[in-house]
């Protein structure tokens, strides 16, 4: 078998719905058409699967307890959420995923799992020529307890997976995080924290924190929803954990084309799925990246929109996003490139 990604179509480049940098919930109904694209799935498998798998396995190998954090106060309910997400994956990709309880066939990675005991699943390879599946098998088999099921799900998709829990007393917390490709934050600092506490470090987030109770109620009882996040980074990696150094050279500011060649557009496609009977919700995060000079060549329509978003950001937001020292030059380059292209 060739690469896993060869099974799937090339990725598209999503973008924010509103061309500004205001911090707010912005939960849009799923399915729906946004930026001309029909958004319908929670999980999006594409030709970059192998690249994602490489970085996700590398994150696990490098610092597993920082990328995967689980509260096991109620393991049965958490296991049920994992299984429901597996069922959703099978609904969205029936050609590659089959769940006929208790057996799960992940044909795209060549693995079969027996979920009879959700707290300690049995797993075997069904396609020995699938190198990606072999590496997933090696990792998952070395784990124990509920972690095995969570890690298998996390490595079978390209999305990072967060499970939010709303308790009967109204308190809320991040119960499970498999965030293997974080955008500059440490997942270990978020587990067992409330929605408001999680977002407290985010610049200009007071409005979002004030609506935490309403957002959590919407996530766990309504939807599903989709939303999009935006940043421009000097690091082209998918994984931008805070202990990974982001390259920077002030000399890039001397030539805007040089600056642009060292910047990468990074968009997060996020979805929510409610599990009201369990008082829980999925919050998924899928990372899309494209070098800025490639954006100019392949998606020039985004250049004026990127400039508008950056221009709208407050100094605090730009500082939080790590963009303060090049934001103005970035916006200027996008605007000049758009004019040059007749946009």
What does this entry look like structurally?
This protein is an alpha+beta fold and 343 residues long. Helix content is 35%, strand content 22%. The protein is built from 13 helices and 13 strands. The strands form 3 sheets. It has a 7-stranded antiparallel beta sheet. Strand 6 (103-106) and strand 7 form a beta hairpin.
List keywords for this structure.
22% strand, 13 strands, 343 residues, alpha+beta
Span between termini: 44 Å
Task: Tell me the series of helices and strands, N- to C-terminal.
Answer: EEEHHEHEEEEHHEEHHHEHEEHHHH
Biggest sheet overview = 7 strands, antiparallel
Helicity range: 25-40%
The parts where pLDDT drops under 50 for at least 5 residues are none
Mean pLDDT: 94
The secondary structure category is alpha+beta
Radius of gyration over all CA atoms, rounded: 20 Å
Q: Strand sequence of the main sheet, in spatial order?
A: 1-11-12-13-9-10-4
Count of individual beta strands: 13
Principal-axes shape call? globular
List the helices and strands and how they pair.
Elements: E1 28-29, E2 32-34, E3 37-39, H1 49-62, H2 64-67, E4 68-70, H3 75-92, E5 97-100, E6 103-106, E7 111-114, E8 122-125, H4 131-141, H5 146-156, E9 160-166, E10 172-178, H6 195-199, H7 206-210, H8 212-221, E11 225-233, H9 256-261, E12 264-275, E13 280-291, H10 292-298, H11 303-312, H12 315-320, H13 327-340
Antiparallel strand pairs: 1-11, 2-3, 4-10, 5-6, 6-7, 7-8, 9-10, 9-13, 11-12, 12-13
Helix pairs in contact: 1-4, 3-5, 4-5, 11-13
């Amino acid at each position: 078998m060739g690469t896993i990604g060869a099974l799937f179509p090339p990725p598209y480049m999503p973008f924010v719905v509103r061309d500004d940098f205001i911090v707010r919930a912005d939960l849009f109904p799923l399915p729906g058409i946004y930026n001309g694209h029909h958004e319908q799935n929670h999980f999006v498998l594409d030709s970059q699967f192998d690249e994602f798998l490489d970085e996700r396995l590398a994150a696990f190998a490098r610092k597993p307890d920082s990328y995967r954090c689980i509260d096991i106060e109620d393991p049965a309910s958490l296991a049920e959420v994992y299984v429901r997400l597996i069922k959703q994956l099978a609904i969205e990709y029936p050609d590659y995923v089959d769940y006929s309880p208790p057996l799960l066939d992940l044909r795209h990675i060549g693995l079969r799992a027996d979920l009879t005991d959700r707290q300690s699943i049995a797993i075997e390879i069904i396609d020995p020529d699938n190198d990606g599946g072999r590496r997933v098998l090696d990792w998952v088999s070395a784990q124990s307890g509920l972690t095995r099921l969570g890690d298998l799900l996390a490595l079978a998709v390209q999305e990072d997976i967060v499970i939010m829990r709303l308790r009967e007393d109204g308190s809320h917390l991040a119960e499970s995080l498999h965030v293997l490709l974080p955008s500059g934050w440490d997942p270990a600092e978020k587990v067992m924290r409330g929605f408001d506490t999680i977002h407290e470090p985010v610049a200009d987030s007071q409005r979002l924190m004030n609506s935490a109770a309403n957002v959590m109620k919407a996530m766990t009882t309504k939807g599903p929803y989709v939303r999009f996040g935006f940043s421009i980074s000097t690091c082209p990696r998918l994984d931008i954990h805070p202990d990974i150094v982001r390259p920077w050279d002030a000399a890039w500011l001397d030539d805007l084309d040089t600056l642009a060649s060292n910047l990468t557009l990074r968009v997060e496609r996020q979805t929510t799925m409610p599990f009201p009977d369990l008082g829980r919700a999925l919050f998924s995060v899928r990372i899309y990246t494209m070098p800025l000079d490639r954006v100019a060549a392949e998606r020039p329509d985004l250049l004026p929109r990127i400039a508008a978003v950056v221009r709208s950001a407050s100094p605090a937001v730009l500082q939080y996003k790590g963009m303060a020292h090049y934001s103005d030059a970035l916006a200027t380059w996008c605007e000049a490139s758009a004019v040059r292209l007749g946009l």
